[in-house]
Amino acid sequence: MTATASPKPDVIVIGGGLHGCSAALHLSMRGVRVLVLEKDHVARHASGVNAGGVRQLGRHVAEVPLSVASMALWHGIRDLVDDDCGFESHGQIKVAETEAELETVRARVAVLNALGFTHEEVIGQDELRSLVPAIADHCVGALVSRGDGAAIPFRTTFAFRRKAIALGARFQEGGAVTRLARNGGLWTVETADGAKYEAPVVVNAAGAWADRIAAQVGEPVPLEVIAPMLMITARVAPFIKPVVGATGRTLSFKQFPNGTVLIGGGLLGRAVRDENRTELDFSQVSVNARTVWDLFPCMRGATIVRSWAGIEARMPDQIPVIGPSGTEPDLYHSFGFSAHGFQLGPIVGRITADLITAGSTDLPIDPFRIGRFAA
Amino acid sequence: MSAQGSKFDFDIAVVGSGPAGLAAAALAASKGASVVLLDEQAEPGGQIYRAVTETPVRDRKVLGPDYWHGAELLGPLRDSGATHWPGTTVWSVARPREDAADGSRPIQIGLSRNGAASMLTVRHVILATGALERPFPIPGWTLPGVLGAGAAQVLLKTSGLVPSGATVMAGSGPLLWLLAWQYLQAGARIDAILDTTPRENWRAALPLLPGFLRSPYLGKGMKLMLDVRRKLTVIGNVTSLRAESGLAGGKGGEGVLKSVVYTRNGTEHRLPADTLLLHHGVIPNLNLANATGCAQRWDEQQRCWRPTTDEWGATSVEGVSLAGDGAGIGGARAAEEAGRLTALDALYRLGRIGREQRDQSAAPFRAALDRALTGRAFLDTLYTPAEAFRVPADDTIVCRCEEVTAGAVREAVRLGCSGPNQAKSFLRCGMGPCQGRLCGPTVTEVIAAERNVSPAEVGYYRLRPPVKPITLAELAALPKTDADIDAVFKH
Question: Nearest CA to CA, how far is B318 from chain A (Å)?
Fold first, then answer.
């Protein structure tokens, strides 16, 4: 069958995660007709089940300008999508457990300051304890980004979808893209349910499946499919507001308003992407639990009620692919966020819209070009 | 333990020591496999034979001969040489890691025992997780004083406890009648049984009656039911139920059950009650199988999800099989035979016996299984709960952990929620400590009804380990390799 019922879209976005939905929203805001093709349902994978951290803190230097710009959008998220997305800003903190770790974060702040960024600050033990009274005694200080926070991932992604639809975007869920080809200035996209769609421009926001889309246009990328694990506790009395990480080991720790505590840290389970399935590796979950045991003694008796993993794409250099295809015109990539793409969602959708409608963006995206992997 | 130097702790782990698990463990170990039987309770027996070794109810006629049959399964287990770990909670079954040496993916079982968590590596696992009561969501079912008949029966078996004060039983299904009969034998007070079996079920079940007439359950069941009907007030054709904390006229209301309001032939009636025992059948306890990744399907006749298994109990996950009610409701005697068949297949898969030996040994068990399942279709059809009790009205709480009502689920469907997994994200229902045991079937049915599609289409929760809660301290203390730790430290 051919999709003839509706007018032909100007842009087809492949992937209904936050980045696909954000691109759809920003394009729709500019009057561009968008069709989003999602193989499962919107927010089914990494966008719906991640830790929800809205973090500038500790990012790769190349990502910092984008992250700072995205943060401004987060602080006005209700104006953007008509929903507060559960966003709360109580800061993010990266704890230093030793003097050596404190030195590391001081050096980082110096680098950022030299680049003109001042959102990260080093704090000493006293202020750390006043911000996080439950922190273990041995922690000597921290890196803090006070404007950071957290939001609810599924709700956020759904809010982007809803607003995009309100502005005219269409979503087709439940059919994976099987073929992508360009002929005479027009892309043809085929899905597993036998449908064919056409548009002058395509956005590849297919997350952990984005390498398959890129491969269709002769642009192989070294994408690794990963399954970062998270776990959550039963409710405990409220005791912490900021999101806490660590300098020397991986951790993401935050308490929801309902009292449950979310514990993550990018530890990996097993991803079976062809079956939409993940398997948890409890010896790794255990290391994560041990970190919490060390840093938050009050959590030792807490009950873990559930753990899970999303399916996500990681690039070898841990930063995403953003920007035009290196092999085909009118194809734009936005994937490979390497388990920290949630905060970037609002801005990268805007960048993609800028590239499509204006041919350029005012943010520095050169470090994210797909060509960096070419031999 | 198996041979020294092996990476496997045991050949086979059996999870659950009800009839299926007891029979499976005994048979597998008697053929020379190293077997560990893991069970949460302090004593073997599962729910059906709960406390069979130590129940204070010594008068055998109270619990009846079917209960005492459970004791006969214990001797063979003892003689088989199987290792029995009671008081052990299994919270995960997975195959996360490839063995570097041979590329295999050994099964790892996460368990807690004596307050400490550990991982067990085995070649094969047999899940015998049994059944649980189908959720019975009515207004007021969360009040103290309202409990499942199955839970009440556990109190009788383990502690000899019977309800005191005004007691009303409501619902349908064999277990409701059995418990009433057991209470009668024990001299307990029952004020009334409110029978919710829909009248039209009889019409649907009638063509299946010939099968049931050959059933071993027929004689026993009939006698028991007649006994109960002769001695107790049984009120039939009940079409709605409500538990209230106030007496008629609004008196009382201290937040505990005071009365039961029911509708019969279009008229509302009220009964004072201190205890209300609800029951409308049992469904497979599939949480562990589901969290392990076993495929499952909607069973229209039993109106429940059941893991997909072949005739040997093998699931879609290699090395994981299922026996007994956890794979679909068949009752205790069927579970026992299914346990034996599953054990034979596990032995065959492990290379302990040949295919021919497996098939020959299986013949008598399969015949016994078929006998035990005779008449099941009649019971399933007759006791299918009425829609009003499966798909409750808007103001009824569906998810008790997160206090989500049926109305909230319907509202989420109108906002684009297409199934239970999205309902988790929309409403948090199913995300509490019970992991959907008390809401899953209802959420499936409410969404299906609201969308006007089959429950098969809306699906079920993807459940996640730990299937039973464990403490952070236990998890943190799991033995770890240096490689595990290296993966986490950044420098």
Answer: 14
